[in-house]
Amino acid sequence: MSCEYFNPVRSVYGAGALSSLPALLGSQRAVVVTFPEARALGLLGRLQQLLGDRLAGVIDDVQPNPDVTELRALYEGFWRDPQAAQVLVAVGGGSAIDTAKALMVRTASGRFDDLIAALAAGKGFKPAAVKTLVAVPTTAGTGSEVTPWATVWDRGAQKKYSLHLPETWPAVAVIDPELMLSLPAAVTLQSGLDALSHALESIWNVNANPVSDTFAVAAVHDILDTLPRLMERLDDIELRGRMALAALKAGMAFSNTRTALAHSISYEMTLRYGLPHGIACSFSLPMVLERALGRDARRDAVLASALGALDRAPERLAAFIERLGVKTRFTDYGISDEQAEQMITAALSGARGKNFIGTALKEAA
Question: Are 30 and 54 in contact, with CB atoms under 8 Å apart?
């Protein structure tokens, strides 16, 4: 069968890769977008030293799950002087990178509300100006460094918006496992399970292709082997490197397929129940796997390559996740069976839910 795979992001991987930033920027000036703890961790100081006079500014108050109320002032302040910097360097987890993606595309008016209006209407827009993005993940999980998507949350309205334009691909991803050594156990676990979700979601997906499958299967193997050991040895640079590479592979997989049902479920779990994203998108994986099996013989074959014999595969996957301390049933989160079915039905009708192979077959029938 023929297929098409596209990913324009240049990836720089390895311990110490952060030191490549000056060469990557050349003579261009950059604004660093990062999280508040970066200063106390010494990361911001290191970036300032590395970039020197290439550093045009710092945004270091990015909060988890960037909200419209926080982004509005950042966005309009950033574009007030469009000549100050040519590049955004996002250093952090998915929230820092998503924030930078929102900042990198200017509306014709320079107003953030016009961006949100376009997203709410479900239509893209042609940016009036675009900044280059260099993404430097400090977690091994989101894959945002090699995808064009960003999530913008409106917690007040209980909504989330997906930003994805041809212009929102990062130009470069710098993956340095040394930056992940300081991650606490909870964030390590959440990001690792997020990567597992990305890999599996790209397999039970109507947009899957042999190239994305290759990345996804390799990522699943690496995560199942590495994540439990890493949780016991958080300071092991070799294990950090393996998880970083696994997350990169998972990102390369879903950069072409997008996510599916588990992620569609996760948005409501985060908005309504406050679950961290990595838990919200992974607790349902065994249930979704059970629904995926038997739908498509070719997808079953790829799942078998990733997970081994499919007999009792959902139970084995649930046991793996639960050994890491994450419950895998809706009732564990105070959600009744009836509420869960309603949530799943709504998730299947969402943009990500429609990528699930079960949805496509049901609609075809």
Answer: yes
Q: What is the mean pLDDT of residues 51-74?
A: 95
What pLDDT is attached to residue 208?
A: 97
| CA-based torsion, 359, 361, 302, 351: positive or negative | negative
Neighbours of 124 (CB within 10 A): 15
CB neighbour list of residue 140: distance below 8 Å, 6 or more residues apart: 177, 180, 188, 191, 192, 195, 240, 243, 244, 246, 247
- Shortest CA distance to 254 belongs to which of 287, 286, 209? 209
Instruction: Assign domain 185-364 to a CATH class.
Output: mainly alpha
CA distance 14 to 238: 10
**pLDDT for 364:** 39
Cα distance between residue 137 and residue 156, in whole Å: 28
* Angle, vertex CA 26, rays to CA 244 and CA 13, nearest 5: 15
Segment 156-182 mean pLDDT = 95
Q: pLDDT tens digit string along 314-323?
A: 999 999 999 9
Residue with tokens 């890493």: 230
CATH number of 10-178: 3.40.50.1970
Q: Judging by DSSP bridges, how do beta strands 172-175 and 132-137 pair with one another?
A: parallel
Whether the model pTM is above 0.90:
yes
Phi, psi of 3 (to 5 degrees): -155, 165
CA distance 13 to 1: 31
Q: Which two tokens stand for residue 122?
A: 């479900």
Q: Are strands 10-13 and 55-59 parallel, antiparallel or unpaired?
A: unpaired
* Portions of the chain given CATH number 3.40.50.1970: 10-178
Q: In which residue are the tokens 């009836």 written?
A: 338
CATH 1.20.1090.10 residue window(s) in the chain: 185-364
Between CA 229 and CA 90 the distance in angstroms is 29
Q: What is the pLDDT of residues 271-326, one digit of tens each?
A: 999 999 999 999 999 999 999 999 999 999 999 999 999 999 999 999 999 999 99
Element (H, E) at 87: strand 87-92
Provide the Cα torsion 195, 197, 199, 203; round to 10°. Answer: -170
